[in-house]
Amino acid sequence: MYGPFSVFTFTSGFADDPTSFGIQRFIAGLGLGGVMPNLIAIITEYSPIKLRSTLVAIMFSGHALGGAVASLGAMYLIPNFGWRAVVWLGALPLIFMPILYKLLPESIIYFMTKNKKSKLVSVLNQVKADGQYTINDHFVLQEQLKSEMKGFPVKQLFKNGRTLSTLMFWTAFFMCLFVMYGLSTWLPKIMGGAGYELGSSLTFLVVLNLGAVFGAIVGGKLADRYGSKRILVTFLIIGFITLTMLSFKPSMVMLYILIAIAGGTTTGTQIVTNAYVSQYYPNEIRSTGVGWALGIGRIGGILAPTFYGVLLDMKLSLQVNFLAFAIPCIIAAMAIWFIQDNFSNLTANRQEKKLI
Prior knowledge:
Layout: H1 2-11, H2 18-46, H3 52-81, H4 83-88, H5 93-103, H6 108-113, H7 117-127, H8 143-149, H9 153-156, H10 163-193, H11 201-226, H12 228-246, H13 252-280, H14 286-313, H15 318-337, H16 345-349
C-alpha cells in the first residue's frame, strides 16, 4: 500500500490543474488509508498485553511527528522551491520499501491459514524466546477464531455483543477526526481573526503536532496502566476545557501551551483510540475493525474543513467558534464511555489464550 501512496504523492507535484491534482491525491489517500489499519493490527498482535497501547501510540505518533517535520520543512521549501517540492518528497518512502518488506512480519493468522509453518515457527520463537517451537509441532486455530473468519468480515464487527461498541467507536472516530482536521485547517485563521500575531500558520501546526506526539505517548502509557476507556474520557474532557479556554484570548505563552494541550488531547487522543479499537476486536477481524473505524472517522475529517469554514463566514463570536470544536470532544467522550469491554478481545487476552 506504500507504493500508491508514494508514487501518486510524487506525481501530484507535476499536476497542472486542480482536477489532476485531486485525483492523484485521492489515489495516494487510498494507499495511506490501507497502510494505517494494517500497521496498527500488526503492532497490536506482536506487542505484550501490558504495553500494547504504549507501543501502538509510539508507532502512530510518527504520523503527528511527520506533520511537525513536514511543517518545518515546508517553511524552507515553499519560499525557495515552491509547493511542488513538498509533495515530491513523498517519494522518499519508496526507498524504505525493500527494508520494510524484508523486516516487517506477517500476521500469525496469515502464516497459519496459508500453512507457512517454517515462517510461523521462526516468528513464534522470536516472539517467545523460550517457546522452542519446531516445524514438527501441530498448530490449530481455536474453533471460535475459525467461526469469526467465516462470512463477510464487516458483519463480524456486529456479532457477539459488539454492535453497540462498534457504533460507539465509529462515533468517537468521527468526532475526533472532525476536531483534528478542523483545528489543523482553520485554527490559525480563527486566532488571526482574534488579533493574535501568530506569524506563519506552519509554526502553529508544529506546536499542535508536537503536542499530539507527547499526548499520544503519555496517553498510551496511562492507558496500559489504568485502562483505555478511563484515560480517553479524561483526555477528551481536558480537550473540551482547553478548547473552551482558547476562546478567552490568553497570553501568547499560555496560547501556545493550550495549543499543545489541544493537540495532545485531540490528535493524541485519536492515536490512543486507535490502540483501543485494535485491542477490542479479535485478531482475525482486527484490521477490518480498525479500517472501518478510521474510514468512518475520515468522513468527519472530510466534512470538518467545510463546516468550520461556513462558521467563519457567518462571523460568529470567538466563543461560539471554539464551542464548535469543543462539543465534539464531549460527544466522543460519551461514545467511549458506552463501549462495552466485556464483549471485547481485551477480556479474552487476560488469560493469554490467543491464536493457537
